[in-house]
Amino acid sequence: MERKIDGELAVVLSSVSIACKRIASLVQKAGISGMTGAAGAVNVQGEDQKKLDVVSNEIFCEVLRTSGRTGVIASEEEDTPVAVEETYNGNYVVVFDPLDGSSNIDAAVSTGSIFGVYSSDQSCVPDWGADDEGVVQEKCITNVCQPGNNLLAAGYCMYSSSCILMLTVGHGVYGFTLDPSIGEFVLSHEDVKIPEKGKIYSFNEGNYVNWEPGLKEYMDALKKGGHTEDGKPYSARYIGSLVGDFHRTMLYGGIYGYPGDAKNANGKLRLLYECAPMSFIAEQAGGMGSTGRGRVLDIRPEEVHQRVPFYTGSREEVQYLESFLQEA
């Protein structure tokens, strides 16, 4: 599938960059502006919302509504996808996790935003003059529940020691660092490629006891050298923020994983807002995104907030992981 940036898509991506700038500013000032701590609400996932979760979601929704190019938006923080009535004929569907890793905010650990952009299926675009509310909602869900293979663009913005926006439109991955002196993103990472191998793994081993046998065998193998020639154990690095862990894996190689376990069979990461966009980015950089038993981008979502086990990173490392799970 050939992907190009036309004027319409450029407006959407520009709107996303504006949202990222605004959120980056809020994150930097969170400790002194009363934006730390819980908001006192629970999102549709059953997770406690931080104050910045709520504000970041409002920022993303606002900039996408006013872009004039977005027909449907879907957020991890919202119960259902929302038709953008202000545009009536927006060409794009945007899915996003407005502030991934927000549980780290109070400790000033890196957080990030994740987004993906799809085309609207014209047969599923709400007809504001004819459709009732139920039909509009059904069409919004149909528009959003597309496989990752349909993604036109995806990216993430990491809020850390610097603010970095990583983006792909289907022709490689490029990174832009926010220059605070001019308030603009400047190209800093050109045609990023994930190393084919890596000796860093990023898993929450606190859940080890609840993992399936094949995954335990895999983790034990890494600590004995995995499939490396020197036989030295892999290094463990786990931030607990998907964007931060993924960004390190992009640059240094290795593997990131959030598996299912006895308590959560499909893990906790959402297919639409996290796994599909990150898999698209990984593949464009020469890596992989897998459930351990198949390609993430091939999955057609059955629910808006569907969760899947997720492994991503260096191609050879993900394939090595799959060899343990596919044999089970």
Number of H- or I-type helical stretches? 7
Question: Strand order across the biggest sheet?
Answer: 4-3-5-6-7-8-9-10
Low-confidence stretches: none
CATH architecture of the largest domain: 2-Layer Sandwich
- CATH fold-level name of the largest domain: Fructose-1,6-Bisphosphatase, Chain A, domain 1
Taken in chain order, the helices and strands follow as HEEHEEEEHEEEEEHEHEHEEH
Helix content: 25-40%
- CATH 4th-level superfamily of the largest domain: Fructose-1,6-Bisphosphatase, subunit A, domain 1
Strand tally is: 15
- Overall pLDDT, averaged? 87
Cα-atom Rg, whole angstroms? 19 Å
The CATH class of the largest domain, by name, is Alpha Beta
Approximately what portion of the residues adopt beta-strand conformation? Answer: 15-25%
The class by helix and strand makeup works out as alpha+beta
The profile of the biggest β sheet is:
8 strands, mixed
Number of domains: 2
